[in-house]
Amino acid sequence: MAITKTWEVNTLERELADGYVNKVIYRVKGIDGSEEKARATGEVELAKPDTLVPYKDLTESTVLGWVKTKLGTDKVAAIEKSLEDEIALINTPVTETGKPW
Question: 59 to each of 45, 47, 99, how far by Cα in Å?
Answer without folding.
Answer: 17, 18, 52
